[in-house]
Design goal:
6 helices, single chain, Four Helix Bundle (Hemerythrin (Met), subunit A)
């Protein structure tokens, strides 16, 4: 499971970077729908990183961030995911963590499942964002996993 999870994390970074490039080229940097959904996507990635590191999850109240802030936060988070991926082994993947935003009953999952959730959650909202770009007349990018594989697993083009 280590190899596929590392690949999913690599793909997620690449696909997120491609989304941000498409969004930047769209001219729709102030679109509230894109900003709101992307802020949610990035905040969930950050929250899972806090859970995985054993930190208390802090979700500060703040105004809706702009494009540059969201992109910087997303890129920074992916650097942490990349470092985390380098240290994955069977024991670390089997370790359990508690997801605090599902308190009753407590949501306790393996690190492996937590990482898979982050990738799947991000993929879902990235797809919504690409659809929104298309609705705005922009050119969304094909970020399918198979495209990333076909291109020899490139690094994220931030």
């Amino acid at each position: 499971m280590i190899g596929p999870l590392k690949d999913l994390l690599g793909h997620q970074a690449w696909a997120d970077a491609r989304f941000f490039r498409a969004w930047e080229a769209s001219g729709a940097l102030d679109d509230a729908d894109l900003r709101t959904r992307t802020e949610h996507l990035v905040s969930v990635q950050e929250a899972f990183l806090q859970v995985l590191k054993g930190d208390e999850v802090a979700v500060p109240e703040q105004p809706l961030p702009g494009f540059q802030d969201l992109k910087a936060r997303c890129e920074a988070g992916h650097q942490v995911f990349k470092a985390l991926g380098r240290g994955l082994d069977d024991a670390s993947l089997a370790r359990t963590v508690r997801v605090p935003w599902f308190p009753d009953p407590p949501c306790v999952v393996s690190v492996s499942d937590a990482l898979l959730q982050v990738c799947l959650h991000t993929q879902h909202h990235r797809g919504q964002n690409m659809t929104r770009l298309k609705a705005l007349g922009a050119a969304p990018r094909n970020v399918d996993y198979i495209i990333w594989l076909w291109k020899q697993k490139p690094e994220a083009p931030w």
